[in-house]
Description:
By secondary structure, the protein is α/β, with parallel strands linked by helices. Helices cover 53% and strands 8% of the residues. It has helices spanning 3-11, 18-27, 40-48, 70-81, 96-104, 114-146, 157-165; strands at residues 33-37, 53-56, 87-89, 109-110. Strands 1-2-3-4 form a four-stranded parallel β-sheet. Helix 4 (70-81) links the parallel strand 2 (53-56) and strand 3 (87-89). Helix 3 (40-48) crosses helix 4, helix 5 (96-104) crosses helix 6 and helix 5 (96-104) packs antiparallel against helix 7 (157-165). The longest helix is centred in the C-terminal third of the chain and has 33 residues, at 114-146. The relative contact order is 0.10. Flavin mononucleotide binds next to helix 6. It comes from Demequina litorisediminis. Its cofactor is FMN.
Amino acid sequence: xxxxxxxxxxxxxxxxxxxxxxxxxxxxxxxxxxxxxxxxxxxxxxxxxxxxxxxxxxxxxxxxxxxxxxxxxxxxxxxxxxxxxxxxxxxxxxxxxxxxxxxxxxxxxxxxxxxxxxxxxxxxxxxxxxxxxxxxxxxxxxxxxxxxxxxxxxxxxxxxxxxxxxxxxxx
Length: 171
Ligand SMILES: Cc1cc2nc3c(=O)[nH]c(=O)nc-3n(C[C@H](O)[C@H](O)[C@H](O)COP(=O)(O)O)c2cc1C
């Protein structure tokens, strides 16, 4: 096994479980956010351990390409955990319309992985700034097209309208 493979093995300990998370929560007074949640049961269990946020993510489906789609999981998790839970959506955010759709379906935040890396590869630091600028412009434009002035006013009903208004956004 090469040095990078050994390092990865050391970083990703497969024996980590919910008891370890409870221990971390107990030891660490700062924020704890758990990424990679893929089922409603895990979302509830992790939230009940007192974390500050959960991230619905399949890490882009890069390792396990049949992993559940976080966007599809989002409404069920929001219903199960209620309005107080902090839910972040990761995976597949490639446009401002994607961000708006996730917020409308119940996410509090979205994360961006590959989109900003594409900007980084295309233009370094400026490319990342430009990616963020494009996402911001698209978010504002999408909300204008929907006739929504505040993120707080977004709701699942807007997602159907979003599909009609934004043909670049996959159904
Ligand atoms: C090059 C690369 C490295 C990544 N490294 C990590 C990592 O160390 N830990 C992690 O939780 N996710 C990692 N991810 C996954 C991303 O954080 C994110 O979950 C995934 O790319 C899906 O989001 P996206 O569709 O916006 O890219 C990595 C992704 C890429 C492309």
